[in-house]
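Entry, Tuesday afternoon. Goal for today is a structural model of the target with zinc ion bound, before we commit to ordering more compound. Inputs were pasted exactly as handed over by J.K., no edits. I checked the ligand SMILES twice against the vendor sheet because last time a stereocentre got dropped in transcription.
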Amino acid sequence: MTIPLDSAAKLLGLLASGELTARQATQASLDRIAATDPEVGAFTFVNTEAALAAADSIDQRRRDGQPLGVLAGVPIAVKDVLCTTDMPTTCSSRMLENHMSPYDATVVARLRAADAVIVGKTNMDEFAMGASTETSAFGKTTNPWNPSLTPGGSSGGAAACVAAGDVPLSLGSDTGGSIRQPAAFCGITGLKPTYGRVSRYGLIAFASSLDQVGPMAFDAVDCATLLNAIAGSDASDSTSLPVETPDFTAGLDRIEGELRIGIVKHHLEAEGLDPEVRQAVDDAIEVFRDAGAKIVEVELPHSDYWVPTYYVIAPSEASSNLSRYDGAHYGHRSPVAASDAGDRGPLVATYCRSRGEAFGAEVKRRIMIGMYALSAGYGDKYYVKALQVRRLIRQDFDSAFQNVDLLLGPVTPTPPFAMGEKIDDPLQMYLCDLFTVGANLAGIPALSMPGGLTSNNLPIGIQLQAPPLQEAKLLQAAAAFQRATDWHTKRPL
Amino acid sequence: MLSVDQPYEIVIGLEVHVQLRTTTKLFCRCATQFGAPPNTNVCPVCLGMPGALPVINEHAVQLALQTGLALGSTIPPMTKWDRKQYFYPDLPKGYQISQFDLPICDGGHLTIADPADESQTRTIRLIRAHLEEDAGKSMHDEANGRADSRIDLNRCGTPLLEIVSQPDMRSAAEAKAFLTELKLLLTYLDVSDCEMQEGSLRVDANVNLKIEKAGDTIATPIVEIKNMNSFRAVERAIAHEAQRQYHEWEETGLTIEDRTKRTFGWDDAAERTVPQREKEEAADYRYLPDPDLLPICLSTETVEATRAALAEFPAVARQRLQADYEIKAYDADVIVNQGRGVVEYFEAVAKGSGDARRASSWIQQDVLRTMKEQGVGIGDFAVSADTLAELLGQVSAGKLDNARARDVFQHLLEKGGSVAEAIKALGIESVDAGEIESLCQELLDANPQVVEDVRGGKMQAIGSLIGQAKKKNPNVNPKQFREICLQLIESAG
Ligand SMILES: [Zn+2]
């Protein structure tokens, strides 16, 4: 039989009925990785032995009639920004090459508790900084739709492995669009939950007030199943929200009540929005209109400030979060510093050399922007000002959601772009986040789903955004869209 | 305080770091216990491991609140956490979680006895008190020509309250008086054990001089003397620094406008302050509100409930002991300055014996002297308050004289047991009046010169007979003996 690595729901059915064992599913996943990954390069580490052992244990417990978790036997990959005790956690950086975390991230512990089989860690932009997975220190990931294209970033590996059919599910992290943009580029469904809905404990921080872990899968139903497993408050994360976790898979077969969908005209007329992307958004609007939704135009008056605000706040927090990588306690320590400290003395030489050697260009760039924005005399001008604008951005969303249930629009200004196309032009790269960073600044949930193909047969993503804690609404709408369309079933050739 | 000897006034502001008495650290559940083997009381959070997140220890906030209320601080309804960023090997995150612009305690004051005139008081104003985490400890092993540096991170994350005074102190003696009173208050409140040799109370002093010259007042550049861990060191360092600054000014003529604040250390062995590093410009800590922690909001109810439950302050205890027990201000001071344990002991003895003044004098002399000799605190003192109360009660009732009572006290110290047992063991029996009378008569007959002297008005002549009486019967009460002798002489006259 063919093992359906594209659908967690189907896989769970076969596992539950006994038609398939967890070992068979896991082995199929490992075999698929072996076949695809030499070209795709989605994985930084594949945990063959541990995954098979976990699968065997699940099979044994199933045979013994013991209770099993909600993802029992489903292979899953996690972005290498999440701490794991049994695999290195590198953030795709030389700084943490071979770093073994002494603890599991809360979401990883929840995956284990749900009896998911973690097959490996996925490639990413270094410390999650980038929109193409080209800044990884351990090699690029290619887009399974076309190896000359990037898979997007920073969760490029997590998106590519799902698109390549290696695993039905993966976990990514989203600071400014890092789940949604690669999901769009790879033709899968990805959800950035409400800030605080999912624990950040064990998620290696890029920008703490923006980071959020979220599910990536072929469709909305699988995203909901994965979100069920990872969501919920966590005593180890002070910013996790003390709210009940609903069953996100319940009611996905219908939309409750009249759905009012907001369109931001300003975004659809944005300079640089690719016509094919624009067309896909228009088509998606029609799909929802046909399904009975009411389409309403709304304003987000401060959306021109999203990218500048984001590129002050995110690097500021990043410069602070990355201070701990100083060559003293763990991670890369320059071997040169001790023997040839120069005028600066061994301590300062250790800091400078270790950081100089192990951080890539993009990470250094953002650390410098952040240090500058926070430095004496500039803090008020940049950082404090950015926080003020951030409040206005949040108010924009609050006002918009007075009149609509969801916002619909593009995920990215363009379809997937070529390797090397933007890597030397940081400003072009930063503009990839044009439509996605608003949700991070406002802390609201947002989802990317396949909404079309370009004339070159490349995926185009559609973004849905919802008020805080309305993930269920997002998933319902996405599931309805996926019943009405077949874009999510398209596969790379 | 200008004089020929000291042609300047010293201006002193203190920063006192107090380790709060919590069992666990400020942001994790590791023990704060002192003296554990290096790097054993640590976890991913206090080690600053990638992905780990802080969670506030509510008890530390409560202790800080108690301290602030006792110091008359204003407690703002909202206080937040900030990152103070600098690189140092004993600071694993590359930043210290502290409070920058919104500390938990605002303002306040502490009233001390004026060391220049004990009958007067001085009020030292406080700027603020804020919570922060402690850093680790670097140990440099330069033995055998090596330059090994080892880092112990056990202390990382230990809760500190930094109490910052206004530059209101004008002498080293005032600084010492401030610290003594502050330490007493903190131990009364039980918010810190203030063990200076364990680093639970550390002091930085900001010192400069005001020099009168040709009708002008010149201020010398400020020097911060760091990390002193004994009151003696503080006193001597300030005194030394004042002289050093005066000489420096005589040589260079530099004033506060010419030079930014410098950091000095105190070399105890050499008894001098030594420059640590030149701060060419104010350090740029690039403060950032910590996005991993929520602000603390203290309700009026919480603040008022804490205020109502506060322990008695030393200043209040001094007044109360004078009023309730009719003891002198000096005596109340001595007792209160010994700490809350001695106050409680005194009150129990005063009430139990019914003789507060005798209790006060015994405690100040016999009890405190013995405690000092034995190096024990009142909690470990061998004679309980009830036992001492019983003993003093017998003295007041005339059943024992002071000398015999001291014998009993000594016996109780050495052997323990009850007062009755001690009296029995020492062979003390009460002597009946008839027996004393015949002894008096016997000695008066044998010493006619004494009788002459007494008749001539030299009452103290009887003193020479007391020793003889004691030899014949050690249980004779000298006071009783004297009275009976006088009666006999009078009646014979
Ligand atoms: Zn800890």
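Residues B 25, 28, 30, 42-43, 45-46, 157 surround zinc ion (CB under 6 Å).
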